[in-house]
Amino acid sequence: MKKFEDIFKSKCSLVGMIHVPALPGTPAYKSDVKSIIAKVKEEAKIYSDCGVDAIAIENMHDTPYLNRNVGPEIIAMMTRAADAVKSASNLPTGIQILAGANKEALAVALASDLQFIRAEGFVFSHIADEGMMNSDAGELLRYRKMIEADDILIFTDIKKKHSSHSITSDISIKEVAKAAEFFRTDGVIITGTETGSAADLSELKEVKKAVKLPVIIGSGITDKNIEEFSEIADALIVGSYFKKDGYWENELDPKRIRLLTEKLKKH
Q1: At 157, is the secondary structure helix, strand, or coil?
Q2: Buried b (16+ CB within 10 A) or exposed e, 96-131
Q3: Which of 12, 26, 49, 125 could form a disulfide linkage to 62, CB 3.0–4.6 angstroms apart?
């Protein structure tokens, strides 16, 4: 918890998500690398100016995602994107590389001096949009040790969105959180069932009681529910709400960002 508190100074920190435009080789790529980097820089500056506590980047537009196996072109571009964010903002920054490319995210974080990664498929198996995804905790933490990146925190999704958890239907989210803690994660992330959908408040309370880890909300935060979630969670990752009309593909809306940051600070 101390490492977490060294990075996130607020009682409940607000993390703004940058959805990096589609990268080279993916179906939606627009054949313009310079515009990708310019867009990422622009959004990092907006977030910084609007008062969020941290930034996270992910390759959200790279649909359909590969299952843990992204190419060197994705790793290279995400490194450039991470560097662009760092050049435009002094905020703590993290990264997720979809889908489940957790080792690659660690490598980018080390190269670009980022503070954390968001990892999926850390403990237990689940069936994601991309197919079957097995646990990678043992491999991932050994890789972190090998590259001497122990200062980079790993926050892990549990019972994550856009996935079927029928395989582990007899295991509660509390037990998954405890398993992630036992496997040395630095924090757990709870989400709703899909991008933009709210997490279950009762699950948040259950997990918070069960572990001595930071518990983070990873989807569905709005101006209507931020007060109740911020009472319990240690951090809130927000993407969709910060976009115009609350839709993840739209442009960032500074008014929405300021509304949420001010509401959180007042609360």
Answers
A1: strand
A2: bbbbbbbbbbbbbbbbbebbbbbbbbbbbebebebe
A3: 26
